[in-house]
Amino acid sequence: MLRTTLLAGVRLVPAHRAACSVPLARPQYFSRVWMSTRKPVGRGTRFDLLVGPRLLLLRRTVLRRRMKARSQHRLSAPSPSSRVEGDWVLFHPVYSAEELKAVEVLHREATTIPDKLAYRLVRFARWGFDFVSRYKHRPIPPGSNMSVKELREGGYILDERGWLSRILFLETIAGVPGMVAGMLRHLQSIRLMRRDNGWIHTCLQEAENERMHLMTFMTLRDSPLWFRALILGAQGVFFNMFFFTYLISPRTCHRFVGYLEEEAVLTYTRCIEELERGWIPEWADKPAPEIAIDYWRLRKDATLLDVIYAVRSDETTHRFVNHSLANLVPDQDVNPFALQEPGMDVKGGKIAFDRKESEEYMRGVQKLVREGKAKIEE
User: Fold this and answer.
1) pTM
2) Is 7 helix (H, G, I), strand (E, B) or coil?
3) Concatenated DSSP letters for 16-55?
4) Which terminus of the chain, N or C, has less C-beta within 10 A?
């Protein structure tokens, strides 16, 4: 699995994508005359009579030109047809075709009381959202020849609006934990004046990745006001609950996110299956949004199905990482994924690393880094 980042002074980004195409406003500077520290020439002097009118005319001309330039170069949001390209600051994965297919729907059994509590909270949230959105996912009777319309009316499958509502709501919630955890660990590192052992970056990478999922699917539909109000309320409640819970038990919070990502992987897997079976005809040949092509480095003719495969692989990464972090001691152990994450051949078929496996993996990555530095010095 490739990653775009700044490593050893080398930018692993295609040259034609290195520039950002968003129009930027030109900076406005004060005139040298206005910023001059010289004493102003008194009124009625010869200099004032000869140069004054010309200087006033010059000032007016400069002002008119600046006002015109400001109106032409005003900073505005790009149109839907324009493409926003550029390098991305944080780590984000770029998957091969084999990695996209290597994802399995897995579940980690809850053994301790905090783990059982986290799992039941996720299941309760899943049940509540299914009830509100009227999603049943009833098993289709064997040998049934029902049409897409009949399947939708019977509650067996969702239409494209139903899928978008579920995905958008899921991504607005999934983008909260990483930012909260990163913020709290950042403040703790400053307060205690010690290093964080690489946890902050991984948490912030997850938050940005989930936000990019939301930005991608937002291009498919403009959510109504009531849906935005629902997201606002849910985000406010969830943010504060996760904030105070992370102060008490970070491991329980990471376990909660691991179970939440299990549901996300299951959701996107079902969406892929229905799309490949032709049960979402509105998305059959829909081209991938331009922001998704640039972010995941997809081919130019990629479709929405390719995007959903990439999103599911991201959720698989979050599932693996959070379950692995929940197996560590947050105040003592080093984040094993600070420098590199394992490939999808590991994350797709394994639910997590235990504490010993995390230490072995971290030592292996450190060895590779040392070997790489030695080659560069040679």
Assistant:
1) 0.76
2) strand
3) GGSS--S--PPPP---TTTT--SPPPPTTSHHHHHHHHHH
4) C
